[in-house]
Amino acid sequence: MIPGGFIMAVTIKDVAALAGVSSSTVSRTCKNNPSISEETKEKVRRAMAQLGYEPNFQASNLASKNSRTIGIILPVSAREAYENPFYLEAIRGVSQLCNKRQYINTVITGESEEEILQVLKTMARSGQVDGFIVLYSRQDDPIAGFLYNEGFLYVLVGKAYAHANQTIYIDNDNLLASQEATEYLYQMGHRRIGYIGTDTSMIFSADRKSGYQTALLQHNILPRADYCVEMAASEKDSAPLRCLLSIPDRPTAVVVSDDILAVTLERVCLEMGLSIPKDLSIISFNNSLFAKLTSPQLTSVDINSFQLGSEAAAQIINHIEDPDLPATKILVPHHMVERDSCCPPKNSIL
């Protein structure tokens, strides 16, 4: 009972806590999933009875047919996510692994969070999906929050922002990767190094910015606010980049968090009469097709997008088939691919 005489609704997490199991185990018990032992099912059912928890048996009965389907959730976007090679490669990795394990996958996205949530609620009611792969990680994301609070099985591609101990996630060490990229430019002789990234509410971008700042501080270089630009990869307005490149003591090199942003930067440099890499060295991330089609081709950190998707699919299927597995955290290795977009700065003493 809470103040005012209202009874607080019992949630799937209350049942899980009392039974000493995960929320996904409770969810699968409600669906009478054969992968849950009878002993565990009985323990969960006793906790349900004790708390007066009533599952949605209509959804449970539908789900018990073993749909063997994985939902792949893209970030909110009208079209940009479908144009980003990272998501396409990650989906390819998910699909190939699902094919091998005989699971179906379906892509979920929308132009608003409300639209995606509505799709998820509909799928949850009908029991159409066994688990979800969220191909991004964002601060205070209502999509991940909904999946967690409702006790659905899901895997994040990216570091968990909340509930890290209870969340399965697959990620790169983005902080280290950006640190190494910045150090690469420093060892080349650059001291005025800038950073261009997407919104830092995206966890990968926040980590890459932190790695850049850490590398500078290790060399007693104070990061400058006017050397850092944050903008969406699809943003049409290039004014922030023009402003950065118009500073009297502008950077001689930049770390860019995404190849698409780096392509935009190259175009702005061309329009401003700046030569790459003579006037500005660029190192970016993802090693996508964009990095290879530019002129000069971009030095880029390959984060193994395909492997991120494949590992995410392997983990979601493993946890579907064995719900008592602990929440897994996997780091996929990265490596730098050197091309022609970096060189020592003018008048370098190195």
Protein described:
The structure is a single chain. The chain is of the alpha/beta class and 350 residues long. It has 14 helices and 12 strands. Strand 3, helix 8 and strand 4 form a beta-alpha-beta unit. The chain is elongated, with a radius of gyration of 23 Å.
How would you briefly describe this protein structure?
With 350 residues, the protein is of the alpha/beta class. The chain has helices at residues 12-19, 23-30, 38-51, 57-63, 80-83, 85-101, 113-126, 142-149, 174-187, 203-218, 239-245, 259-271, 289-293, 305-321; strands spanning 69-73, 104-108, 131-134, 154-157, 168-171, 193-197, 228-230, 253-256, 281-285, 299-302, 329-331, 335-337. Helix 1 (12-19) packs across helix 2, helix 1 packs across helix 3 and helix 9 packs parallel to helix 10 (203-218).
Q: Describe the sheet with the most strands.
A: 6 strands, parallel
What quaternary form is this?
Answer: single chain
Total of DSSP H or I helical runs spanning 4+ residues: 14
Q: Give start-end ranges of low-pLDDT stretches.
A: 1-7, 57-65
Describe this protein with a few key phrases.
alpha/beta; 14% strand; six-stranded mixed β-sheet; 350 residues; elongated; disordered N terminus
